[in-house]
User: Which sequence fits this backbone?
């Protein structure tokens, strides 16, 4: 009943209908040509976005909220499917990939900035934008391909989560530099400790509190209540994470890890997966809609953009080879780290909003984000081959007319 | 990423967590004491709302959007479970209940206004607020009790839908009177024809278009896509309904009727029901949060409020007895028509916003809406008894630890 600021309620509902239908249709088409559905959803976002059809405006507050719910649901689902012991077991490998995957792209991006004659601060922001990994996109592709439980996937997920935590530390530091603030070793240490400490503390407390809590809820009554309660937990942990200086998506992933060992995991997963079918595509469409394809007409933008794409891919792929002791396919790990997605766009937007990046540099960074994001799904698909047949695997396969249990 | 106007994103997410957890917890408690879950969700809204805890503000735009999605999902679900042939079969009975259930409460409410010495226009608005039936609340209670397929429920649903259409016509006319505009027989006729014509036209066109459309989608690929596509259809039909002068919820119900005979109904229902577990409680919490319990401290408000409650109950219960030929339990039909819910609140708000109702009269009408809404669920429960055992019935029962298929 309450009208939405800016757009009227019917307009919002119509846009939402277009997002859902567009994401599902282009997603299905992507699967028909052998690509992960998420690629189609990103493309649907580009098509619906301001630079082509102009139906979806990625900065509308209502879309921001629904997209944020989408990425929270997605990371919660991923956490729910993650075995914490296996994740910690691949911790050394993942940490190596993450650290090399931050250091190499940062240095290479900074080098590209210097080579193109940029001042110091823009070069740092460009380098920082290259450090991110979009855990959402990689995890979604691995899930679409039915590969979440592979050894390579565990390393990629662990490294991508670490990368998100490290990325936040870098974002905090870069934001302070951009604002002209003082960056001391102590402030960097505090930011880092908070980011990692939150996950550790939440896991320690939650492992004790969460399973009995859901056991009690299950005895209280209705199994249909479990998924909404789990989502409430995910929202709570997400906000706590953001409040202590970590990120919403880290909190959502942690909440998923907490619900994974509960006896009610199956009921939670059933409900949250259906919710994800609705919310998650909204997130990917909004990421796609943030892309303005018109900015690529400028040759200067294209030049530095192509250089950034090259170091974006090379830097992360090399990081995949850093843990020399790892027995799995190192190329899969490296390629899995390539997509920058929304995290890269946040760096670009921070730079643009503060004036450190001009419109051209912003476009070049955006080009790097888009190409790396769009390159990874088909590359992973080509490396990993078709989805292995797994009865009872999560939805997302291409089996037609098969009703889900 | 985009901050929400007014409240910050973390605040919104935290409020949403409180709404989900509160609705589920108080809903479960309501079921434990033998009441429908919706009663608990309404109570959770009152508790969380501005007059008690102050955590949920019912006029926040984001909450309005999520609540609107909730009522659209709910009415779509109800339409999906409705057999159009049976609904039309009880058409004469339903139409009689609806028309008497509009005329009697209107005249009685107008009479109360005259008796308390109100001017003509406020008396008309008060009478109009008494005509509404909240199809959402009644349908949800019948669904909670597993009674949607009963003969009485079909009459109540049919009458409540007609009532919503008639209510819109009345709202349009009253709004015109309140604005000082001219109300002619021709304008009333046009408004009525549009409201009924939309449903008829949508059903005629949709019955031809929708089943092959979903057949094509099912062949295209993923059954997980069907529910989001059905929701996109529901949003589209809802907006079309609103655009031609009918209401969003009428469109959502119509879209459900259209999907009911498709071969993919089961997949659609599975997905949309899970979505409903999330969105529908948000709607009922927001209805509950619109209640300000503090206004009832005024004795003058209480006097006219109690008189309105009496005619609200008596008028609709008598309407249940109007179709003398109906073989079912007429008292169930009458009580099913009692809750005014959000529709009554819209009348009250229109009156308040235009200045026709002062704060006291607004509170009296609100009291009528609350009591009628809170009275109906336990009364129906008492009349209908416990939920009949139906294997594979929709979620909402109290079987614990039983995982849903």
Assistant:
């Amino acid at each position: 009943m309450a009208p939405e600021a800016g757009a009227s309620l019917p307009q919002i509902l119509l846009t939402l209908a277009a997002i859902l239908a567009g994401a599902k249709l282009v997603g299905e088409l992507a699967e028909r040509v052998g690509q992960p559905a998420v690629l189609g959803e990103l493309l649907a976002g580009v098509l619906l976005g301001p630079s082509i059809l102009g139906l979806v405006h990625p900065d509308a507050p209502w879309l921001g909220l629904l997209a944020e719910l989408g990425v929270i649901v997605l990371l919660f689902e991923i956490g729910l499917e993650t075995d914490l012991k296996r994740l910690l077991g691949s911790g050394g490998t993942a940490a190596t990939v993450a650290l090399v995957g931050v250091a190499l792209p940062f240095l290479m991006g900074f080098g590209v900035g210097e080579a193109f004659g940029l001042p110091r601060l823009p070069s740092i922001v460009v380098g920082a934008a290259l450090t991110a990994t979009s855990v959402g996109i990689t995890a979604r592709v691995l899930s679409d391909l039915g590969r979440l439980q592979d050894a390579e996937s565990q390393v990629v997920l662990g490294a991508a989560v670490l990368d998100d935590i490290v990325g936040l530390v870098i974002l905090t530091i870069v934001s302070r530099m951009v604002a002209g603030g003082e960056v001391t070793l102590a402030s960097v240490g505090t930011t880092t400790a908070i980011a990692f400490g939150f996950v550790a503390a939440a896991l320690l407390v939650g492992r004790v509190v969460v399973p009995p809590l859901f056991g009690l809820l299950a005895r209280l009554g209705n199994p249909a209540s479990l998924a909404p309660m789990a989502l409430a937990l995910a929202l709570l942990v997400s906000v706590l994470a953001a409040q202590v200086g970590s990120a919403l998506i880290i909190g959502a992933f942690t909440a998923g890890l907490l619900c994974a060992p509960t006896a009610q995991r199956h009921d939670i997963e059933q409900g949250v997966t259906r919710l994800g079918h609705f919310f998650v595509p909204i997130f990917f469409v909004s990421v796609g809609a943030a892309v303005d394809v018109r900015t690529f007409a400028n040759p200067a933008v294209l030049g530095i953009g192509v250089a950034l794409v090259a170091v974006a891919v090379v830097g992360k792929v090399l990081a995949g080879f850093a843990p020399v002791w790892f027995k799995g396919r190192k190329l899969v790990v490296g390629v899995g780290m390539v997509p920058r997605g929304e995290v890269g766009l946040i760096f670009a937007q921070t730079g643009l909003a503060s004036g450190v990046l001009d419109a051209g540099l912003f476009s070049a960074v955006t080009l790097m984000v888009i190409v790396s994001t769009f390159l990874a799904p088909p590359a992973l698909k080509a490396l990993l081959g078709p989805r292995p047949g797994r009865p009872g695997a999560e939805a997302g396969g291409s089996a037609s007319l098969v009703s889900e249990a």
Q: What stands out?
A: The radius of gyration of chain B is 21 Å. Residues 1-5, 390-405 of chain B have pLDDT under 50 and may be disordered. DSSP finds 16 helices and no strands in chain B. Chain B touches chain A through 79 residues (CB under 8 Å).
